Amino acid sequence: MKDEKLLEKDAGLDELTALTEEIDRIVPQNAVISLKGDLASGKTTLVQYIAGHRGADAATSPTFSLQHSYGNDLFHYDLYRVDYEEMANLGLLEEFDRAGWHLVEWMDEKLKSFLAAAGYNLFEIEIEPIHDRRKYTIRLLNA
């Protein structure tokens, strides 16, 4: 799987709107975006800013429902306790065929490999906490 760094940026909460605009310029209209980071690193917070930038009212973590949709083209998944096999068994892999952005927290390596092999536009945003700021690294995982 290809791994090309597109952007690396440190940002605080007051800079997330600008970061969201940069992500919107980098990532194509139809893409699957893996959100990588430890617990409480800011994955859901970033989704809230992205959702707001795209016109959604409020975004919350889909921890217990696995997926939330914000409008017709923004989808948010929390796969903390769900692996690739369970996604396939639940019939959720077909959800990635829907046009728009698919923001996936806790994506496992099997799902990444499947999506890359299937030809999806696959990106990763890694979030690393540094005191009261975060380092955001955006990578293209396939070409």
The backbone outline, from C-alpha atoms, is: globular
Poorly predicted regions are none
Structural class: alpha/beta
In CATH, what is the class of the domain at 11-94? Answer: Alpha Beta
Question: In which range does the helix fraction lie?
Answer: 25-40%
**Largest beta sheet: what is the strand line-up?**
1-7-6-2-5-4-3
Q: What is the CA-atom radius of gyration, in angstroms?
A: 14 Å
What is the name of the CATH architecture of the domain at 11-94? Answer: 3-Layer(aba) Sandwich
Give the strand tally.
Answer: 7
The ordered string of helix (H) and strand (E) elements is: EHEHEEHEHEE
In percent, how much strand structure appears in the residues?
25-35%
* Biggest pleated sheet: 7 strands, mixed
CATH superfamily of the domain at 11-94: P-loop containing nucleotide triphosphate hydrolases
Mean pLDDT reading? 89
Tally of alpha and pi helices: 4
CATH topology of the domain at 11-94: Rossmann fold
Q: Tell me the distance between the termini.
A: 9 Å
